[in-house]
Structure formats: C-alpha cells, structure tokens
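B., you asked whether I could sanity-check this one before it goes into the benchmark set. Here's the sequence:
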Amino acid sequence: MQWNLVIPLKPLVRAKSRLSDTADDGVRPGLALAFAQDTVASGLACESVADVAVVTNDDVAGRELAALGAVIVPDVPDAGLNAALVHGAAAVRSARPGAAVAALNADLPALRPRELVRVLGAAALWPRAFLADSTGVGTTLLAAAPGVDLAPAFGTASRARHAASGAVELLTTGVDSVRQDVDTGMDLRAALALGVGPRTAAAAAGLLIAD
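And here's what the prediction gave me:
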C-alpha cells in the first residue's frame, strides 16, 4: 500500500516553545524548520510513501519544504493541530480519492525511511492505527486506510485518546526514529544520539546541549 503523509506545521515563530531551555527565540524557528525539512526529506525517501502534504501558513517553511518536493496545503481552518490534519487529509483525498493517509509529526529529525516503511506496513493491516511517541504518552503517527476518516486526536495524552477512539496501537519494535519527536532539550539530545538529518545537525551544531 502507498501512503500519503500529512504533516502539520505551525508558524515557525510560534514553534518549539518548550525548547526555550536549550535554544533562544532567535534560534528556535530555524530549528523547527530544520526538523521539518529532515522529516519531509525522509518521508519522501520512504518507498511506502506516494506523497507528502504539509499543512502550514508559514511562507518560509512552505517555500523550503516545497523545494524538497512536498505539496503545501494552506491551513485554512487555522484552528489548531487536529483541524489542520482533517483539512490536510481532505485536500489529499480530493486530489486522490480513496488515498491511504497518515498524519506524521513535523519534528522527527532522526526519521529513517526504512523504519517508516515498517510502521506503515503494520498500519496497513488496520482501518486506523497509531504509533506512540518515545514517552508513551503522545502520538507521532496516525494512519487511516482508504475510505476511513483520519479522526485525529493529537494533543496532551493523545496515545490514550487515539486508543479510546478505536485506533489500534502499533507495537512495532526497532522504529525508535519514528517515535522520537522533539519537544524538549532532552528530546533533542535523544534525537541527536539516534542520528539526525543534515539540516538539524547543522542547526543544532552551535547549541550547548548538556548530557
């Protein structure tokens, strides 16, 4: 099965506020863009992915991610993460009726295409499925088969909400790069230990990241 990824990205100036202990206001927008660039590049390199749609109203991010090959979908609802994902999935399916869609976080800078293949292969066995993040509290990927509503419930404790919604939790092992999103300095250290993409490596090179 070929998947269409939908990646939401808030305006860069408002992104990654929880990284304030590691990066100041002038650095965080560049880090957020680098995370998204490496995530999109890895998604496009995944053999199970047909296309990547990024839902954003940020002009800089839209231009840079389009240059990588992503389709940019304006965040018309402008009403938060879940509304953006519903809108993005609808835009994908208006162009490709019956498409399988998967919402993916924009902050997976260590993402490995081969690991994403494994996760999407497992998701193809279910109408809706999700992958918990590295903390076991949130969600990094939510997948919906052709003809099935995505019905995203991202946000605080989204793992529990997605499970309660009837989505199947994927217990695939050896896919740490798909689980490791970056919200805090500790998350960034964990992603760097896994091995991040070139844009994140460059953006993070000047940061003092304590052990």
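One thing to flag: Residues 3-202 form a domain with the Spore Coat Polysaccharide Biosynthesis Protein SpsA; Chain A fold (CATH 3.90.550.10). Otherwise nothing jumped out at me.
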